[in-house]
Design goal:
It contains 5 helices and no strands.
Length: 103
């Protein structure tokens, strides 16, 4: 087998290969819809917003602590908010109290 590269697969790739027979093709319509969603997720738009100097200062401090640019942090927070992944601290504390009580 001349020219064939022997590459080791990582666990994720190995799992895909092991389960490949269980995957089913999707319709052309569904495939186009998936591609459209992926394309939209790759595109970005610039926006201008007004925020207080204090909030901007705190965002920059937090982004420094996280090791990411503050614009990336803002984008991440917005994404988590619109995709219902942003959780309020009071809800976490409430859940923890319920867990402690149930023990």
């Amino acid at each position: 087998m001349e020219g064939k590269m022997n590459t080791a697969l990582d666990k994720f790739e190995s799992d895909i290969e092991k389960n490949s027979s269980s995957y089913h093709p999707v319709s052309e319509k569904k495939h186009k819809r998936i591609e459209s969603i992926l394309e939209k997720s790759r595109k970005t738009k610039n926006i201008n917003i007004r925020i207080s100097e204090y909030d901007l200062e705190k965002l920059r401090e937090r982004s420094d602590k996280e090791g990411i640019p503050y614009q990336t942090l803002v984008s991440s927070i917005l994404h988590k908010y619109v995709s219902d992944q942003l959780v309020e601290e009071k809800n976490i504390l409430k859940s923890l109290k319920l867990l402690v009580r149930s023990k």
